[in-house]
Known about the structure:
Layout: H1 15-25, H2 33-46, E1 50-54, H3 57-67, E2 75-79, H4 84-92, E3 96-100, E4 122-128, H5 137-147, E5 150-154, E6 162-163, E7 166-167, E8 174-178, E9 191-195, H6 198-208, H7 231-242, H8 244-262, E10 268-269, E11 285-289, H9 297-306, E12 312-313, H10 336-344, E13 345-348, H11 356-370
Parallel strand pairs: 2-3, 2-4, 4-5, 5-8
Antiparallel strand pairs: 1-9, 6-7, 8-9, 10-11, 11-13, 12-13
Bound molecules: pyridoxal-5'-phosphate.
Amino acid sequence: MEPIPVNEPLLNGNEKQYLNQCIDTGWISSEGSFVKQLEENLAARVGRHYGIAVSNGSVALDAAIVALQIGPGDEVILPTFTIISCAAAIVRAGASPVVVDSDPITWNMDVNQIEDKITPRTKAIMVVHIYGLPVEMEAVLALADKYGLSIIEDAAEMHGQTYNGKPCGSFGDISTFSFYPNKHITTGEGGMILTNDEQLAEHCRSLRNLCFQPKKRFVHNELGWNMRMSNLQAAVGVAQLEQLDEFIIRKRHMGQYYTKMLANIPGLQLPLSQTEYAKNIYWVYGVVLKDDVPFDAEEVMARLREYKIGTRPFFWPMHEQPVFKPMELFDKISCPVAERIARRGFYIPSGLALNEEQMERVATVLTEVMK
Length: 371
Ligand SMILES: *Cc1c(COP(=O)(O)O)cnc(C)c1O
């Protein structure tokens, strides 16, 4: 029985050809032309003025926080159910993360809980689109407008997705993407910052490149990072972006196929195929064990592993992270939905290279295990 990995990317387009161009011309560093091309192509696709390619989606968030001048004394509201990168960027900048719980159906941040968390110190809302359906942006945009807050939009899982017909990644003062191999398009490792604001774009470009100065290169007024993307990575990204529409069609088909096969398992909550504002793009196919199921996600995942089927647990809530305990950031916070889905949720193989035969095996085994 061949193992079925939780993710395998598809690299069947012009990736090799563009990589060969890098090697044939010797342009492999971040100075190569594919970097600019990827920035321009993704910005155009999402309808933004500026793109800044970086080395991953996590550092894109670091740069976004610093560029928006968020620091000590400031608060940023974010979902507790997300990847550590979001809270880490806020904490590293010396600001305070303020979490909201999840919607039990979409697993996105419950936008109805945001307003109660706004204080005079709130600077921004970090919106994170989770697993395939976008956050209800209209409510977030209205709050940002009402209270004068910035929006950081983490669209790492949302390439090609739209909210009410408008591209995800077009809503934030700064929006970020990741190109890790499990995302809809990949550069191996990589990320992107998008904005319409020229000054923010310039600041992010400077932060990406150690804050070297144009005139006095080695004299620094600010501390940056080396978060540059190489031309080799960008070459893969340009080829991947050419295929994004096909990838989305493929992912939607996969999601619907799984849903058809798993719909009759009584103990499983499946992802919604659509909401009133978007059709799911199934970044990953997540499932949550219903309350009457007498075991946790960990046990199901262990059983699937015996059949060589790869899975991943759901995110672990930020307010339950051991690393934040001594910092006393989340004293007495409870987010019952996120706490439950973290323990009851997991995702099954969902990568673009997955074929129907593999999906059928996953569904058969999962059906069996759930008995
Ligand atoms: C993957 C991901 C990131 C981090 O991206 P990396 O490129 O792996 O650093 C950030 N936010 C979300 C929501 C993600 O899914």
